[in-house]
Specification:
By secondary structure, the chain is mainly beta. The protein has three domains: about 110 residues, no CATH class; about 120 residues, Galactose-binding domain-like (Jelly Rolls); about 120 residues, Sandwich (Jelly Rolls). It has two helices and 26 strands. Strands 16, 17, 18, 19, 20, 21 and 22 form a seven-stranded antiparallel beta sheet that branches. Strands 1, 3, 4, 24, 25 and 26 form a six-stranded antiparallel beta sheet that branches. The protein is extended. The relative contact order is 0.22.
Length: about 400
């Protein structure tokens, strides 16, 4: 009986030390306040992202019970992204004709569903055309849906740019007639008609600490360096340009990955975050995969054109939320910051439909540093170097004496 008690005590002690070891491998913690039910929401604060990994795998929710046991609460990470739905609408191409106004394409939609987007593809690779879209129920009376709409395609050794998507208010007609104002016959290869709906996501606007702009005349580039106040997850970039003339400029956005101090100063290494084309045909807003950054570099390729006038730059990111499930009563903490942690595997990831739609948000306490047990330092065998040299000298003298003695015997 006594041996069983001893074994149980040892197992309990081992389990406690293992649980504590789990917590100890992380660097920071914040107490979670206001737990009153099984499911709650935790909104990650901005200042956490500079202390966790880029892929956000080193986040945990640990609790300490009244028995001083460590328990783990599973969670799902959710980003407040947009919800996009696009329903392609079936149609028939009735005819294609032309007159002195241009070239006409007539489409029939047999259903009564509205549309708000038409994507076009042409055999031509270089064009600049103006479009007019009309709608009718009987092909006798035509009503203007959108006019003077510009589509553009440029392909050469420097540029490969297309803008051939028509977006307009939702319209419900049986017939749509597309007029292309062109002297050249457009060869329409593909047309896709759809109802495209976007439910806006929830964003945070990250304030910019500093912007530096310089014109590199030799490579004909505008370079813009942006410093944010802290590392944050960026998912949207919007660039406001005040110039009223038409333009299209290839550009690249890079972010600082690391820096190395050399004899010549600091060397900064950048990786590409996104690339695209700034143009006067649409809003210059770019969606990227959420990435934690603090320093950004915009490179605009002006070619032989004058630099653009940048008015505003907006850096936005999705709100990051944890949907956590609490089963055992305990004092829970948000634990984070570890180079060793891998992505957690929880059962609730397979039952996302069971998560309530409305969740109460927990309050986060102040950040605390998790104390770690220091490894005992092993003192060197000889702290004083004089002792070490004395012993080495004695060893050399002994080896010499034995060598001389062996030689004499021979």
């Amino acid at each position: 009986m006594k041996s069983r008690v001893k074994i149980s005590a040892c197992l309990l002690l081992l389990a406690c030390s293992y649980s504590y070891g789990q917590v100890e491998q992380y660097n920071h913690k914040r107490e979670l306040k206001g737990i009153s039910g099984q499911w709650h929401k935790i909104v990650l604060p901005d200042d956490i992202f500079g202390k966790i990994s880029q892929n956000l795998t080193d986040i945990r929710v640990f609790g300490i019970t009244t028995n001083n046991d460590t328990v783990e609460a599973p969670y799902l990470l959710r980003l407040t992204t947009e919800k996009i739905s696009s329903k392609e609408i079936a149609f028939k191409t009735l005819n294609a004709s032309h007159n002195d106004k241009g070239y006409f394409f007539t489409f029939e939609i047999p259903t009564k569903e509205p549309i708000n987007q038409i994507r076009l593809e042409f055999k031509q690779q270089n064009f600049d055309w103006r479009l007019k879209l009309e709608g009718s129920q009987n092909q006798q009376e035509w009503y203007t849906v959108i006019e003077n709409y510009r589509i553009l395609s440029i392909k050469n050794e420097l540029t490969d740019f297309q803008f051939t998507k028509m977006t307009f208010p939702s319209s419900k007609y049986r017939f749509f007639r597309l007029l292309i104002d062109s002297e050249e016959k457009p060869v329409l290869t593909v047309a896709k008609i759809s109802q495209h709906e976007v439910t806006d996501g929830i964003f945070k606007n990250y304030p910019i600490k500093e912007i530096k702009t310089k014109e590199n005349k030799q490579p004909k580039q505008t370079e813009i360096d942006i410093d944010l106040q802290m590392p944050v997850p960026v998912s949207h970039i919007k660039i406001g340009i005040t110039d009223t003339f038409d333009y299209y400029r290839p550009f690249t956005v890079q972010y600082l990955t690391d820096s190395i101090k050399t004899e010549q100063g600091w060397k900064y290494n950048y990786s590409t975050l996104t690339s695209g084309t700034l143009n006067s045909l649409e809003v210059n807003e770019f969606k990227i995969s959420s990435t934690t950054v603090q320093k950004l570099k915009f490179i605009i390729h002006n070619q032989d054109n004058q630099p653009l006038t940048i008015d505003t730059i907006q850096i936005n990111g999705y709100v990051h939320e944890l949907m956590a499930r609490f089963i055992e009563p305990a004092t829970y903490f948000l634990i984070y910051g570890s180079k060793k942690a891998s992505k957690p595997q929880y059962d609730i990831a397979r039952f996302t439909d069971k998560v309530p739609e409305t969740l109460t948000t927990l309050e986060l306490g102040d950040e605390q540093t998790i104390e770690k047990d220091e490894l005992p330092k092993t003192d060197p065998l000889f702290k004083n170097k004089t002792w070490l040299w004395t012993i080495m000298t004695l060893i050399i003298l002994l080896l010499g004496w034995f060598s001389v003695k062996m030689i004499r015997k021979k």
